[in-house]
Design brief:
Length: 260
């Protein structure tokens, strides 16, 4: 079964979600009502075309295969706001975008109608009948000062996707203001992001039930220094945390069932 069909055919039970890993910082959430939430999918070779960052993990989806009800973007960098994917997604009238402030100009250039996208600053919320999204503090440095994470609440489950951020525990926890079930965090330790150790330190304070690393293995530039972008290091560090926190390294295309 191909990845597109796996996502489209998966309908979790009421009160549950299915989380798919798309690689890099990209994830997909399926709800019990069949809604599809995409977060930062990088599906093209835009980073190689623009910056000579060659992708090392083949894309599991083509932009044309994405059938998203809600499409979240944490910031404007090309491996999150994929400039070769978004124009294809924007053609679908069903897709609603919720994005960081630095993504607004790109959506305007594509002439996405204003009733189909919402820009969230830190602390601001977007809500539908079954899904709530709140923008969470992130510090991704001067090249992306508007970068942020997202807290997604669906099926009574809280999922915190940190986006790209440095280790700023006080600011993040103050912005988050809640317990979470699943925490997703970068571990590449470069370009303004946390290391595996820092992601685990943050998790020790937030205390999610599940901690999932991301932002590794896509580009050689993200593993150029010893111990950075290494999921094996992540597993060593997460093993030192409370037994109440389960660390899971997901392979691209892998799915995780979670029930609240």
């Amino acid at each position: 079964m191909d990845f597109h069909h796996k996502i489209s055919s998966t309908i979790p039970s009421l009160g549950s979600i299915t989380l798919f890993y798309i690689a890099q910082a990209g994830f997909c959430i399926k709800t019990s009502k069949g809604r599809t939430i995409m977060i930062d999918p990088y599906l093209s070779d835009a980073c190689e075309r623009l910056f000579h960052f060659k992708r090392m993990i083949p894309s599991l989806l083509t932009p044309e295969e994405v059938d998203a009800d809600l499409y979240l973007v944490t910031h404007h960098h090309a491996d999150h706001l994929d400039p070769d994917t978004i124009p294809v997604i924007a053609k679908s009238l069903k897709t609603i975008f919720v994005v960081a402030p630095d993504c607004r100009s790109f959506l305007n250039e594509l002439e996405v109608p204003k009733n189909r996208y919402t820009v969230l600053g830190e602390g601001e919320e977007w809500q539908s009948e079954e899904i709530k999204v709140r923008a969470i503090f992130a510090d991704h440095g001067e090249l992306a000062p508007d970068a942020q994470g997202f807290l997604i609440e669906v099926e009574g489950i809280k999922i915190y996707h940190a986006g790209d951020t440095a280790f700023r525990p006080e600011e993040i926890i103050s912005s988050l203001r809640t317990e979470v079930d699943i925490m997703i965090a970068p571990i590449n330790g470069q370009y303004g992001n946390m290391t595996a150790l820092e992601a685990c330190k943050l998790a020790s304070l937030i205390k999610p039930k599940i901690l999932i690393p991301c932002h590794f293995w896509m580009f050689l530039e993200h593993v150029s220094e010893r111990g950075k972008g290494d999921p094996a290091t992540f597993l060593k560090e997460v093993a030192k945390l409370s037994n109440d926190i389960k660390g899971i390294v997901m392979a691209p295309g892998e799915q995780l069932e979670y029930s609240g």
